[in-house]
Target: Phytanoyl-CoA dioxygenase
Amino acid sequence: MDVETARSDLYTEGITACRGAFPQSWVQELREDVDAAFEEARSREGGAVGRGPERWYVEVHPQAFRGFVDLVEHPWVRGVCEAVLGPDYQIVELGFDTPFPGAKIQPWHRDFRSPRETHQERRLTSLAFNITTVDTTDELGPFQIAHGTQWDPGDDFDHGMFPPPSRYPEFEAAAVKKYPRRGDISARSALTVHRGTPNVGSEARPVVVLGVDAPGAGNHEHHSPAATKEYWEALPERVKSHLQTCEVVDELVPITQKHNIEGLVMGGEDA
Model:
C-alpha cells in the first residue's frame, strides 16, 4: 500500500503494482461478469473491438461489474490516483482486454498520443489500472512493457501511437514481461510503450482496465459510461465525485466503442 513508491515507479518505469489487493473469490465474481459482458458484446456490432488476431477489447458501464465500487474505493487505487492525478481525478473508462488462444504478438504501441503536459512538462495526466482474472503464465501471452518510455515524445510514431520498426530494438532492450496473479492490481501510464505477446495456451487471459484522468486530460471524449438512476443513487458520494462524466439514464444502452486503435485491428504476427 506504499503510494509514494507507486508514484515513483510510475514516473521512472511507467508501471507499478499492488500484490494481493483482492481475494480470489472477488476475482472469480469479476471473471463471471467479464464473461457475461463479452458474450453480450459479441452479439452486436461495435460491442467488441478487435485488437489483433484473437484479441478483443470490450468497454462496459460501471454496473456491469459487481465489484466496481470495491475496485475504485480500494485504498491503493484511490491513493495512487490522488498522488499522481490530484484529488479531482475522474474515472473515464471501464472495460477488459482478452487475448484468446491463438492471439499473436502486437506491434509496439501506446494507447494515445502524448500530451504536451507529459512530453514537455514531464507530468502524467492519465493512468490505466489493470486487474487480471487469471494467473499469468508465459503460455497465456503476458503483457510486455518497455520501462521509461512514457516520456518519449513520440514525434516519429505513426498517429503518435505506433513507433517505427527501426526503433523496436530499443524498446525490446527496455522490455519486461509481467506475470500478475489473481488479486493483483497494476497501474501504468498508457503512454508507456507496450504490447501483448502470443497466447499459445489453451485458455483466454481477460484483463480488466480502469481508465482514470487528471482534470482536463480529455480522454473522456472517447468514452461514454452511464448508470441507471437506481444504481447512481446507491453509489457512495465519494465515488460519484469521480464519475462526473458518467451519464445518469432511465435505461442503459450498451456501449458502441469510440476509441478504436486501428493499428492493432490487423496487427499481430507470430513471435
User: Anything to note?
Assistant: The first strand starts at residue 15 and ends at 18. The two ends are 36 Å apart (CA to CA). The CA atoms of residues 69 and 235 lie 8 Å apart.
